[in-house]
Amino acid sequence: MSVRTRVAIIGAGPAGLLLSHLLDRQGIESVVIDARGREEIETTIRAGILEQGTVEILTETGASDRVRTAGQRHEGIELRFEGEGHRVDFAGTVGRAVWLYPQHEVLKDLVAARLAAGQDLRFHVTAERVEDAGTDRPRIIAKDADGHRVEIEAEVVVGADGSRSVAREAVTGSYGGYFREYPFAWFGILCEAPPSAGELIYSNSPDGFALISQRSPEVQRMYFQCDPDADTGAYSEAQLWDILQSRVPGTTLKEGRIFQRDVLRFRSFVAHEMRRGRVVIVGDAAHTVPPTGAKGMNLAVADVVLLTDALRALLHDGDETLFDAFPDTARERIWKAQHFSWWMTNMLHLQPGAGDFDRLRQIGELRTVVESGAGRAYLAEAYTGWPLDGARLDG
Ligand code: PHB
């Protein structure tokens, strides 16, 4: 089967679905394929924090109203160390906020909006490779659920297909990129319990990091630093609660049945290239951040907002300027987010083999941040997200 469209998108995650939504608003037709089914896309548990700019894009373009009604606005986080909590007040320092609204809820909203708009959105269609990047008719070669070949020819192909991207090879020639692996991971749980705190707690403890996050009044998400090879089945519920509790001294966690466990690997990655000819990669296909800064999905949204402007100029006006500049423009924010995620990670986690000097230096770093207006403002600015229009917060 052969299909033609203007923009062919691999991946029905936040980047791919939002791109098709924003393009549609510019009158640009697209086809979106994903190897997964709708059910899997809409139920896989991922991140939970949306930057203010992400929420504005979702609501102002009609992609999601539920983020404002079902999501929770958070105006700060707590950094906890040496048994004491220190609030970083986003609203008070930078006049911005974030929303706790799980990624799979964003995906439900986007899938519903795309299907209602008549979007050509194909589940269980697996991209195998991208061809002819150097021409103005690049193509996706894919297979449907029955193993039949599907070819999608377009003016531009966009790989929004996550960290195991198939499109990346057509762009970077190999899997070339800047890479950093961390010697720890997060053990994540979902539990049936009331919230233990009103805002997220990022805790540096002598035994390692923990994050107390939330999902709803009845369901909570929590993480603790673990070995990358940790086995999710190796702990009893009581052991998990003991570990979590010991990592947030000063707070009594509200415990409940743990119904999901997973281990999140920590990696930083930026592809050497984001575009080759008429093929572009965005979101996790182009970069990965460790979850400590809550930047992953937000960075994907920022890529797509920029790319929409570039594609409008290219496909409406034949103007290639923004499309050519896209990788360099996107990279500025990507590296700021890489730095922030790396900084939060290193400030809060216990490095294997760390001695007293390293631990006390970390406490000094945390104090530098929380006891300084400038320090808290930097954290608040980065966490709530730099403006999407490229404006600077200080004017
Ligand atoms: C989450 O709730 O899953 C979450 C929140 C903040 C992070 C990472 C994950 O930095």
From TrEMBL:
UniProt-listed InterPro entries = FAD-bd, FAD/NAD-bd_sf, PheA/TfdB_FAD_monoxygenase
**A Pfam family reported for this protein in Swiss-Prot or TrEMBL:** FAD_binding_3
Keywords (A to Z) from UniProt: Oxidoreductase
The species is: Streptomyces griseoviridis
Provide the organism lineage as a comma list.
Bacteria, Bacillati, Actinomycetota, Actinomycetes, Kitasatosporales
Which GO molecular-function terms appear in the entry? 4-hydroxybenzoate 3-monooxygenase activity
Under what name is this protein listed?
p-hydroxybenzoate 3-monooxygenase
The UniProt record lists the FAD-binding domain at 4-340
Q: What is its EC number?
A: 1.14.13.2
Q: Does the keyword Transit peptide apply?
A: no
